[in-house]
Design goal:
Layout (H helix, E strand, L loop, with lengths): L1 H32 L6 H11 L2 H39 L7 H19 L9 H10 L23 H10 L6 H5 L2 H11 L8 H6 L2 H14 L11 H32 L4 E4 L3 E3 L3 E5 L4 E3 L3 E5 L8 E4 L2 E4 L2 E3 L1 E3 L5 E5 L9 E4 L2 H7 L2
Antiparallel strand pairs: 1-11, 2-3, 3-10, 4-9, 5-6, 5-11, 7-8, 7-10
């Protein structure tokens, strides 16, 4: 899923660079006009080009809005597909997949077949393949494939509510409250307000992501030829849109990663450390370790009791037993250890260690 986010951020950076080039070109017009003298021919050409600046700005704006919406739409679909591929990896046997996902998979696969037969699906898959996958999905099956693309089936644009619905199809809860509780939104808000922490009610939380539906509406106006010169936004406003979408993409990634880790815990795919015995300065927490082991570099996650707060995770930076620093701590009766984490740990949350294979699949 991390790779999906990197693709989005790369595309947003490209659009940002394009806007920067537009701004630089705009800044050249008055400088060229001031040249005069031996540069009269260049000045005349520049003045002629400047006459078309309104049309240039209009189509620059259109291209940016279309590109931003397209990047967002593709990202959401890719994120859902990546999560759908991850579910069998975490759960193993088909019967271990949460019942809600199994039921939705069957319903959406049938819908997928119907949409393909009615030629309503772009780049449809072979119907025989879809049916074959469905037949493999038996409760005791260990070798099976999900019809992942069925989870991205939709008939409308990628509005905020549509993202919620598509995510819910695979039992991922995307809500304004979860988004504003993400580290991505917290950092974005702090930078925007000069260090303040957000204290938002439910209505304010929803309003904080109104830019998603606003982008969808602007894209629709353009698609239906309703765009006018009055709709054109200044370059700084377009750059603000990019910053918002980058934050939105990161926040969604946090939520999907949160669900993947929580699912791994429910499926007993992660080693549990429990609640810390103590918390010390410097992001250090202390745990008992009766069995198993922990190494420097292992991914340690913090599971808040409030499911509206996404899981935090990061590599164990250092380990200590008593006054000694160790690379590996082995479990033993009565053994305790301290671990330094790259995030601010809570003393009331539960912790655990992600297995290496899952870390690789999550692409952390």
């Amino acid at each position: 899923m991390r790779s999906d986010l990197l693709v989005l951020e790369s595309e947003l950076s490209e659009v940002s660079a394009l806007i920067d080039s537009y701004q630089r070109a705009e800044a050249l017009y008055p400088k060229i006009s001031a040249l005069g003298g031996e540069h009269a021919e260049i000045v005349d050409i520049s003045n002629d080009l400047a006459k078309g600046r309104t049309s240039q700005r209009k189509y620059q704006y259109i291209s940016v809005i279309i590109a931003l919406y397209g990047a967002m739409e593709q990202y959401v679909e890719s994120l859902i597909l990546s999560y759908a591929r991850l579910v069998p990896v975490i759960c193993g046997r088909f019967g271990n997949i949460p019942e809600a996902i199994r039921i939705k998979h069957h319903e959406l696969s049938v819908d997928y077949l119907s949409e393909i037969k009615m030629n309503r699906v772009h780049e449809p898959e072979d119907t025989h393949t879809i049916v074959r996958r469905l037949s493999m999905c038996r409760i005791r099956a260990t070798k099976y494939e999900l019809n992942n693309r069925a989870f991205t089936l939709r008939t409308s644009n990628m509005s905020f509510d549509r993202v919620k619905t598509l995510s819910a199809n695979i039992s991922v809860v995307v809500s304004p409250r979860r988004l504003v509780n993400s580290q991505s939104y917290q950092s974005f808000y702090s930078e925007k307000t000069g260090g303040l922490e957000p204290a938002l009610g439910d209505a304010e939380a929803r309003s904080a992501f109104s830019f998603v539906d606003d982008l969808v509406a602007k894209r629709n106006r353009i698609a239906h030829g309703a765009n006018s010169v009055d709709d054109i936004e200044d370059y700084p406003l377009l750059l603000d849109r990019i910053a918002e979408l980058r934050m939105y993409g990161r926040a969604l990634h946090e939520i999907f990663e949160d669900h993947a880790i929580r699912l791994a815990v429910k499926q007993a795919r992660a080693s549990t450390l429990g609640v810390p015995l103590h918390k010390y300065k410097g992001n250090i927490v202390c745990f008992p370790l009766e069995t198993g082991e922990i190494r420097v570099g292992d991914v340690v996650f913090m599971l808040p009791t409030d499911e509206n707060i996404p899981v935090r995770r990061g590599e164990a930076l250092s380990l200590r037993v008593g006054n000694g620093a160790l690379e590996t701590v082995l479990g033993a009766p009565g053994a305790n250890f301290g671990v330094k984490l790259p995030y601010n740990p809570s003393q009331t949350a539960n912790y655990g260690i992600l297995p290496v294979d899952l870390v690789e699949k999550l692409d952390l």
